[in-house]
Design brief:
The protein is an alpha+beta fold. It contains four helices and six strands, in the order ααββββββαα. Strands 1, 2, 3, 4, 5 and 6 form a six-stranded antiparallel beta sheet that branches. Helix 3 packs across helix 4. The radius of gyration is 25 Å and the shape is elongated. Keywords: Membrane, Signal, Transmembrane, Transmembrane helix.
């Protein structure tokens, strides 16, 4: 790879913003919540990993939380509840990935939640991911199941610097470019001195 390819790729990597997923329309979300087959309040008894999904830029996970039902707000005939404990499958997204429309469902044992659930493929799932989960009472610190790669930490630090301290970010970028230009200039000067 030529040096200028590396420089251009690095600048694009650090300068381009992350992809952002859109939030659902609030009116549409309210209507969808009113149509969900099961709306409950419950407490998380357990949260367990089912499967890790490897992705190029970040891993995600399928997890299952065991919920003790405290209150059934709405239950349609086909919501299939047996007893006062249900399992709810959800998709965990790392918190360090930017999502404008929601984000990561992060629960720990003892959390009290309000859930809007649908029944798909033999299991309950929250309506539209995080949009179907409302935290009533959080029980302690959240757990980050997927560690942020070092390169993304550096990118995040760069974006934070560029966003919050623009003059410093510009100075760092100019310093890097000057260093590359000086290095390339000294290399071509050395190459010419060997020819003579």
């Amino acid at each position: 790879m030529k040096l200028y390819h590396f420089i251009i790729t690095s600048i694009l990597f650090f300068a381009l913003p992350n992809l952002i997923m859109a939030a659902p329309d609030p009116t549409e979300l309210k209507e969808l919540k009113e149509e969900t087959p099961l709306h409950i309040v419950g407490e998380v008894l357990e949260d367990e990993l089912v499967k890790v999904h490897k992705k190029e830029d970040h891993d995600t996970q399928t997890r299952i939380m065991t919920i003790k039902i405290h209150e059934i707000i709405r239950q349609k005939e086909h919501s299939y509840i047996n007893g006062d404990v249900i399992k709810v499958a959800y998709h965990y997204l790392p918190t360090w990935v930017d999502y404008s429309g929601g984000g990561s469902i992060q629960v720990v044992k003892g959390d009290k939640l309000k859930l809007w659930l649908q029944f798909e493929d033999g299991t309950f799932t929250p309506l539209l991911g995080i949009s179907g989960v409302e935290m009533i009472t959080a029980n302690g610190e959240r757990i980050e199941y997927v560690n942020q790669p070092l390169l993304l930490k550096v990118k995040g630090a760069w974006l934070d610097l560029a966003h919050n301290h623009l003059p410093y970010a510009v100075a760092v970028l100019i310093l890097l470019l000057l260093t590359v230009i000086i290095w390339l200039g000294s290399k071509s000067w050395k190459d010419e001195s060997y020819k003579h």
